[in-house]
């Protein structure tokens, strides 16, 4: 195993030799290397002054060297060279990430990199951004002798976001993928009794915090998936405990039924992070269960909470749609028929749904096409229904503005509410499809209203006794206002994107946009080995575009109608959109290898 340590002054001459061998690896002639030698020489006095570190393999051999030079807030990556025999083994990646980590600790906010032309692909893959400013050594004797010029990159080192440190105390955590267990406690007719989709979504347990120590999963997951995720996000030492359930959704109870595993997970001293709180999780974690702490997971209760907050004033950018709880299906049918005759669109909701399950948007045309209000109601799952006013209209700024937005935050165990941020969701016909987070994603006209109202909901949740993650979903109307539609007292798809953005910013430098797409269709079902190959190819292709690809849900690939959940990250919207489009096209194209069906 390769590790990084401080260089020693007595190693200076040997390190100079490593640097020159590494430079020669790119095929430069003797004249060029001789011209480079004075610039690349490491002297004993440089080791401390230039903050030189080395990478050392398990045999004690030095296989790489790097330096962090200058004073905050600007510094330079002065050296980063790898022994030719160790190229391609992750040594350069390890050294670069160590430089970025040390830069953060020193208070550096601008890291300048003057790259050899042969190394530009490496720095792009590591997240550095090319800049137009010429490299400082481009006109040096060495550059002139070789007829080459260095290429300048920059990175913006940042610490882990404040909210992410508060979420798990600044360290690693144990992630419990209890999605099915969380859903099952509501016994809603619109939720799948077998919780089959929930077991796929349990794979998102990989991302319940920016850096897990262990993943606990109900179903088996491909080993290649966890290895690729760890490589993409710079994780090491992540333990995976999967295949704990056959059918029952009670993951926390399945852990408790294995005393050795339960003792290992709960006795580690690390936070235990679930998808959502349940009574069974409380028993596992040794945390008292508070009756009613999930009451605002109910859509009608959340609507009442929103109304109470708005009654106090102070939120002019927020409008609350009217909502009625109906006594039965025929009452709902009469109300829907009356609204249809009046030309009004309607939203029918169950009390507890996830991802849009139990939510139906009905325009007058759709009601008439279905054969009337009673015909519509007969096709919906049984159970209590809410009738809600439909919020129509494009967002402020025209049809290009976002329609569906969300605010994420959490309440810590001390009862303090923390803001995570806002996201833009992709919603089709009332069903959630994905979300994008990152700087500038939420438009300026919506940001203040969204964050102020979301923070107010967080304070009320804290006062009610709730502890954990939450979000507030909004729909934008045509006048620049936001309508809150529900709260989710659990982790969500957007929260996963926030976790990955926080990790990538700390790992690669600030400014990542992250998009989570719940369902990317595959053109064919693949064996596990071929799925691993596809995901590795998608990671390489996205890197060439300047993006990062992380497979989020692999187990959907083995369904009769195969699909993947994916995360794509980039520093600009154009690259993000291009990378997502390319991933979708390549995923569909896997069917072509099998010929026509």
Model description:
The protein has 597 residues and is an alpha+beta fold. The protein has 21 helices and 23 strands. 36% of the residues lie in helices and 23% in strands. The strands form four sheets. Strands 20-19-16-17-18-21-23-22 form an eight-stranded antiparallel beta sheet, sandwiched between helices. A seven-stranded mixed beta sheet has the order 1-2-3-4-5-7-6. Helix 10 (223-233) packs parallel to helix 20 (528-545) and helix 20 (528-545) packs antiparallel against helix 21. The longest helix has 21 residues, at 444-464. The chain is elongated. It starts with a strand and ends in an 8-residue tail after the last helix.
Keywords:
elongated, 7-stranded mixed β-sheet, 8-stranded antiparallel β-sheet
Main beta sheet: 8 strands, antiparallel
Secondary-structure content class:
alpha+beta
Number of strands: 23
Stretches with pLDDT under 50, minimum 5 residues: none
Percent strand = 15-25%
By DSSP (H or I, 4+ residues per run), the number of helices equals 21
| Ends apart, CA distance between termini | 47 Å
Quaternary structure of the protein:
single chain
Strand order of the largest sheet: 20-19-16-17-18-21-23-22
Radius of gyration, in Å, reads 27 Å
Mean pLDDT: 92
| General shape | elongated
* Helical coverage, percent range: 25-40%
SSE diagram, text form:
Blueprint: E1 3-6, H1 12-24, H2 30-40, H3 46-49, E2 52-56, E3 62-69, E4 74-82, H4 91-106, E5 110-115, H5 120-125, E6 129-130, H6 141-146, E7 151-155, H7 162-168, E8 173-176, H8 179-184, H9 196-201, E9 212-216, H10 223-233, E10 239-241, H11 251-256, H12 259-266, E11 272-274, H13 279-285, H14 299-311, E12 323-325, H15 329-341, E13 346-349, E14 359-362, H16 364-369, H17 373-378, E15 386-389, E16 404-411, E17 417-428, E18 431-437, H18 444-464, E19 468-476, E20 482-488, H19 493-508, E21 513-521, H20 528-545, E22 548-553, E23 563-570, H21 573-589
Parallel strand pairs: 4-5, 8-9, 8-11, 9-10
Antiparallel strand pairs: 1-2, 2-3, 3-4, 5-7, 6-7, 12-15, 13-14, 13-15, 16-17, 16-19, 17-18, 18-21, 19-20, 21-23, 22-23
Helix pairs in contact: 10-20, 20-21
């Amino acid at each position: 195993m390769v590790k990084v340590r401080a260089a020693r002054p007595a190693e200076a001459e040997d390190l100079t030799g490593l640097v020159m061998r590494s430079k020669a690896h790119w095929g430069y002639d003797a004249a060029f290397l001789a011209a480079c030698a004075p610039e690349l020489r490491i002297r004993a006095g440089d080791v401390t002054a230039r903050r030189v570190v080395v990478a050392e393999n398990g045999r004690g051999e030095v296989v790489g060297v790097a330096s962090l030079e200058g004073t905050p807030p600007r510094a330079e990556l002065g050296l980063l060279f790898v022994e030719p025999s160790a190229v391609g083994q992750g040594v350069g990646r390890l050294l670069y990430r160590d430089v970025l980590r040390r830069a953060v600790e020193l208070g550096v906010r601008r890291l300048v990199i003057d790259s050899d032309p042969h190394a530009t692909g490496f720095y792009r893959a590591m997240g550095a951004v090319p800049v137009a400013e010429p490299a400082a050594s481009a006109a040096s004797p060495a550059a002139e002798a070789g007829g080459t010029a260095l290429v300048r990159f920059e990175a913006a080192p940042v610490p882990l976001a404040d909210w992410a440190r508060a979420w798990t105390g600044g360290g690693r955590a144990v992630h419990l993928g209890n999605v099915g267990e969380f859903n099952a406690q509501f016994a809603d007719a619109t939720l799948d009794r077998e919780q089959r989709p929930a077991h796929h979504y349990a794979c998102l347990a990989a991302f319940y915090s920016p850096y897990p120590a262990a993943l606990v999963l109900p179903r088996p997951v491909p080993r290649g998936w966890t290895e690729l995720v760890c490589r993409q996000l710079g994780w090491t030492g992540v333990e995976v405990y999967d295949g704990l359930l056959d059918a029952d959704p009670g993951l926390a109870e399945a852990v408790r039924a294995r005393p050795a595993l339960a003792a290992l997970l709960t006795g580690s001293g690390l936070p235990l992070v679930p998808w959502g709180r349940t009574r069974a999780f409380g028993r596992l974690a040794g945390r008292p269960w508070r009756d009613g702490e999930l009451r605002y997971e109910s859509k009608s209760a959340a609507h009442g909470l929103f109304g109470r907050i708005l009654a106090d004033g102070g939120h002019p950018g927020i409008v609350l749609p009217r909502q009625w709880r109906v006594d039965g299906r025929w009452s709902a049918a009469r109300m829907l028929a009356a609204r249809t005759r009046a030309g009004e669109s309607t939203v029918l909701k169950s009390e507890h749904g996830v991802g849009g399950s139990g939510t139906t948007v009905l325009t007058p045309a759709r009601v008439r096409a279905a054969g009337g209000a009673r015909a519509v109601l007969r096709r919906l799952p049984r159970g209590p229904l809410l009738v809600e006013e439909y919020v129509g209209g494009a967002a402020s700024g025209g049809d290009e503005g976002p329609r569906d937005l969300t605010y994420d935050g959490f309440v810590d165990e001390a009862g303090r509410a923390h803001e995570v941020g806002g996201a833009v969701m992709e919603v089709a016909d009332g069903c959630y499809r994905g979300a994008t987070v990152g700087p500038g994603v939420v438009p300026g006209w919506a940001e203040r209203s969204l964050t102020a109202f979301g923070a107010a909901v967080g304070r009320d949740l804290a006062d009610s006794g709730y502890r954990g993650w939450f979000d507030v979903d909004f729909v934008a109307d045509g006048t620049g206002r936001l309508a809150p539609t529900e709260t989710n007292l659990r982790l969500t798809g957007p929260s996963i994107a926030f976790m990955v953005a926080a990790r990538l910013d700390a790992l690669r430098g600030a400014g990542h946009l992250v998009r989570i797409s719940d369902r990317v269709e595959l053109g064919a079902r693949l064996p596990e080995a071929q799925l691993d190959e596809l995901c590795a190819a998608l990671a390489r292709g996205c890197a060439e575009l300047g993006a990062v690809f992380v497979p989020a849900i692999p187990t959907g690939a083995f369904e009769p109608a195969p699909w993947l959940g994916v995360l794509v990250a980039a520093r600009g919207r154009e690259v993000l959109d291009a990378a997502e489009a390319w991933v979708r096209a390549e995923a569909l194209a896997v069917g072509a290898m099998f010929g026509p069906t």
